[in-house]
């Protein structure tokens, strides 16, 4: 079983950029590969007292839903203060249009032509436009995509064109029936913010209303990519409060691929030095522990790819630190085994007694480390709201957990291979200080 896990982990990890078994690479954070950093301010002026926190949480959920269709791996969305939200998109530069879509409360607004005496909200080559409105239950309301059901989709029409299909909710149906019934024979435009929705040829979308639209409508003339992106954004939900961008910057990689290579080299050097110490001091036991350390490194990297973990500078620091701690349990076990051998036990009995008696110390020390990792992760996700703190806690937790597994299972399994062989009688191979050959 140990051999099977080792082979599977190696197939997941190697090569680093594209594992043989899964095709997964290592995910890098904003500080290693760059990306986009945006800070939004949530307008809570119209929110009822006591509902501010839930409103901000709702905004974060919608932002996450809107970002996911963009293909961003591991976006970081965090609350800062009472009314600010930071969004970090590693490895992704987004356009101004995409940024505006992320922060827009209402994605699409429908417009009708404004007369010369009326104030126009939009103006383009197709005319002057005002919001298309109707009076429902004594209140004038504008027709927007806030009345869409979250089930829009894109299909190919009978004539081969791209169609974005949407469905009105109950209130939207009443508005659409009233407005489209009044505008039969007249154009009705659609706008995204201050800009007209434009078709694939770049012309403003303003089709003539042919009949009353009650339940289902369609938008034609868009490119497939634009229609698909718009559909995904519409299905992501409506923001419960307006957002304002107060900081927007493109982050270049602080450390980049060169640092990743340096970190891997540093980790490799650290593993080799630890292995040399273990072999020199504990002889054959140290060699077996070194083999278990190789198993540890592969298994940790495989978990980083499978979970997946986004590696930042702090996360790499947690991984490198866990390498040094990976042999702690082995040292405790080997010292107990050495004491048992001095007492005259056979190698097999010494191994079993050493593992059993060292287990409580290993368990307690690792449990306290897990508790600290949990506290750090909680701080990084709530109070401090720091992605590097979360990354350090997560990689350190995984490293310590795997090190405990390799010490108790892998090293023990390898040592048991020598019980009953002629090597078991040569106790000097297991420690230079036993005084027995």
Q: How would you characterize the overall build of this protein?
A:
With 437 residues, this protein is an alpha+beta fold. The chain folds into three domains: 2-26 and 256-429, Multidrug efflux transporter AcrB transmembrane domain (Multidrug efflux transporter AcrB transmembrane fold, Up-down Bundle); 35-104 and 247-251, Alpha-Beta Plaits; 109-238, Gyrase A, domain 2, CATH 3.30.1360.200. Helix content is 48%, strand content 17%. It has helices spanning 2-13, 30-33, 52-67, 96-103, 170-182, 224-235, 256-306, 313-325, 328-342, 347-383, 387-416, and strands spanning 27-28, 35-42, 76-80, 84-90, 109-113, 122-124, 127-131, 133-136, 139-142, 153-156, 162-167, 188-192, 195-196, 216-220, 243-251, 310-311. A five-stranded antiparallel beta sheet has the order 6-7-5-12-13, with no helix packed on it. Helix 7 crosses helix 8 (313-325) and helix 8 (313-325) packs parallel to helix 11. The longest helix is centred in the middle third of the chain and has 51 residues, at 256-306.
């Amino acid at each position: 079983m140990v051999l099977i896990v080792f082979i599977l982990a190696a197939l997941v990890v190697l090569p680093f950029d594209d594992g043989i078994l899964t095709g997964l690479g290592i995910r890098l954070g904003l500080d290693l590969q760059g990306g986009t950093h945006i800070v939004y301010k949530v307008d809570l002026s119209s929110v009822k007292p006591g509902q501010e926190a839930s409103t901000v949480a709702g905004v974060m959920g919608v932002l996450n839903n809107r970002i996911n269709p963009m293909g961003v791996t591991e976006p970081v969305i965090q609350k800062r203060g009472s009314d600010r939200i930071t969004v970090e998109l590693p490895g992704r530069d987004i356009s101004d249009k995409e940024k505006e879509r992320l922060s827009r409360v209402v994605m699409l607004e429908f417009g009708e032509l404004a007369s010369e005496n009326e104030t126009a909200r939009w103006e383009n080559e197709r005319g002057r436009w005002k919001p298309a409105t109707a009076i429902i239950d004594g209140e004038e309301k504008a027709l927007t995509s806030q009345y869409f059901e979250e089930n829009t989709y894109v299909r190919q029409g009978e004539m081969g064109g791209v169609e974005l299909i949407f469905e009105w909710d109950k209130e939207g149906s009443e508005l659409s029936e009233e407005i489209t019934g009044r505008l039969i024979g007249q154009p009705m435009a659609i706008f995204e913010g201050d800009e007209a929705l434009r078709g694939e040829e770049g012309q403003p979308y303003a089709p003539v209303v042919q009949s009353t639209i009650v339940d289902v409508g369609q938008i034609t003339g868009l490119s497939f990519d634009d229609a698909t992106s718009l559909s995904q954004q519409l299905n992501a939900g409506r923001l419960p409060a307006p957002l304002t961008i107060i900081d927007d910057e493109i982050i270049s990689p602080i450390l980049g691929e060169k640092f990743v290579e340096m970190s891997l080299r540093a980790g490799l050097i650290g593993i080799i030095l630890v292995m040399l110490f273990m072999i020199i001091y504990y002889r054959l036991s140290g060699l077996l522990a070194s083999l278990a350390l190789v198993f540890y490194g592969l298994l940790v990297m495989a978990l980083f790819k499978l979970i997946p973990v986004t590696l930042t500078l702090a996360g790499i620091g947690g991984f490198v630190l866990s390498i040094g701690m990976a042999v702690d349990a082995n040292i405790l076990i080997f010292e107990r085994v050495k004491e048992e051998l001095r007492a005259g036990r056979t190698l097999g009995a010494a191994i079993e007694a050493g593992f059993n008696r060292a287990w409580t110390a290993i368990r307690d020390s690792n449990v306290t480390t897990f508790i600290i990792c949990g506290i750090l992760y909680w701080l990084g996700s709530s109070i401090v709201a720091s992605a590097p703190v979360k990354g350090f806690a997560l990689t350190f937790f995984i490293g310590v957990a795997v090190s405990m597994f390799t010490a108790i299972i892998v090293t023990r399994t390898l040592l048991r291979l020598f019980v009953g062989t002629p090597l078991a009688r040569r106790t000097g191979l297991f420690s230079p200080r036993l005084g027995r050959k």
